[in-house]
Amino acid sequence: MSAQPRVPKPTSSWSLLRRFWGFAHPHRRWIWFGLTMIPLVAGLSTLRPLLLKEAIDTAIPQSDPLGLRVLGLIFMVAVVAEFLCSAVQVYALQRGGSSTISDVRRTVFSHVLRLPARFYDNNAIGGLLSRTTSDVEALSETLAFGVFTILTDVVMIVSIVVAMFVLDAKLTLVTLTVTPVLYVLVRYFGAALRRLQLEMRKAQAAQTGFLAEQLSGVTVVQLFGREPAALREYERLGQRNLDATKHANILDALLFAVMDGISAFTIALMIYFAAPSVTSGGAITLGLLFAFVDYLQRVFGPIKEFSGKLATIQRASASLERIYGLLDEPGEPAGTKAAGEAVIDPLHGWRGGIRIRDLKFRYKDDGPEVLRGISFDVAPGEVIAVVGRTGSGKSSLGRVLTSFYDGYRGSIALATPTGEVELSSVVPEQLRRHVLMVQQDVFLFDENVAFNVSLGDPAIAGDRSRIERALAVVQADQVIAERGGLEFMVGERGANLSSGEAQLLAFARVAAREPTLLILDEATASVDSLTEQKVQRAIETLLHGRSVIVIAHRLSTIRRADRIVVLRQGEIAEIGPHDELMAKGGVYAEMVAMGLEEDGAGVNAGATSVEAAGP
User: Fold this and answer.
1) Mean pLDDT, to the nearest integer, of 378-389?
2) Which pLDDT belongs to residue 376?
3) What global pTM score does this model have?
4) For the chain, what are the domain ranges?
5) Would you tell me how many other CB atoms lie within 10 Å of the CB of residue 126?
6) Cβ neighbourhood burial of 183 (10 Å; 0-12, 13-18, 19+)
7) How far apart are CA 34 and CA 466, in angstroms?
8) Labelling 57: which of 3, 215, 265, 388 has CA 20 to 30 A away?
9) Listing from the earlier edge strand, what are the strands of the sheet with 571-576?
């Protein structure tokens, strides 16, 4: 499976926001409806100073109470209409924005679930939590208080400037002399704020990642007295975020103060140039001057708030950059089908036959090979045991066969009735309907027993008898009944169960799905002897009629394997039945003598569930 090409990351805020429109497009009706209210709100807001001008320049000098009352009623109607249009605008935009953010959350979560194991090898879970929570929340703030309100402000400013030109072009040009200064300030502060916002997001992700890691290993932290050291490191990471935040606040405060000063200067400049005309009865009247002052306050109000909205947009740009960096990571290939067509299963009728030839694999392009030229066959229904010392490639073989890692060289051919199918041509989703693995480290969800067996699969969750049969097969029915039955809550990571009981549930998951190929990766290494007896009986049931690869299992199961593949430093050292390899007196016989005990006292000497050569 070749890696999907990475999409180039956009760099500008507007290019990021344009790409974001893809999420907003399905909800465009609400958004467009809200946007159509913007000209109405701007027009009604522009109308009020004109009414005041008319009252000052015409109705008051003429002592016309009726005219003043009419203007007052029109003014009141304009205010009510503006507020109603503004309320409709906010509701429509927030309705469309909330739906858009919901789609973003769903898309990010769906994509994260499809990312390959290599991605998780190099990215902390805490950082991913930051991207999927706080970064998405920053987008929500932008839709509510950033982009749309800035659009409203822009339309408002344009309508006010047009009205000012209509009233007096010369005086308007005077007030616009500060525009170049405003442009330079916005460009400079905008670029600086974006850099700081990106730094704040990275710092928050690092701190969140550290917090998640320390909480996950809190027992180790407490056991070895690392609380003070952990607190110091958390404070150090928090200081990085605090420093960036302080710098951003300084820039924000400076921009607001400068805008406030420019606003006052512009009004003073306008009054200075208008004074001669007002006092001499020229074209500039008192009402016109009052209207211009009102207009300038309405213009500089949004401009002064623009710094905060700009900071919000910069936060969103930094968040979008991180979110799209995540979405641009190539995920595992997914099966596709046309509308109304059934998904074609390339492994339909496969009975578990595998032909492995010259298999080579490394976790990183520049890393060492952990599998070097492995070749062997698995016949349908055959049980193969794979043993070897730590770092020999046992677990790596299991990870390749389940497509958790791609990029292998050589051939892994699956013998189907219609011919051989190369493993790399089968998408993981389809492969894992036929191939399942039981690992030593069992993960249980904070749900009841029924969910942890079915994992939400409708075909299994809707058939309680199927779940009960699976529990009975693995000898876990009595244990679960004593605990409270299928509704018993197992707790976070199976906290309410022993390691042996958790392992039995892992076997029940497999029994409920009946895979064609089952891989046991040190599945009983941490199980007590009493539970192991139940597990061994469960394994014997699961082995019947299907192909099985047993990785570094205990001797009691290995001896029942049809053949044993002995790995040493990523290569096959020996292969054959137990008795034959023992008679040969080679690597396998030495391993049995050193670590593979009949009573299950140990696995192979020093073995762990994670390959030393792995990531």
Assistant:
1) 89
2) 93
3) 0.68
4) 13-327, 354-594
5) 20
6) exposed
7) 52
8) 265
9) 435-439, 517-521, 547-551, 383-388, 563-568, 571-576
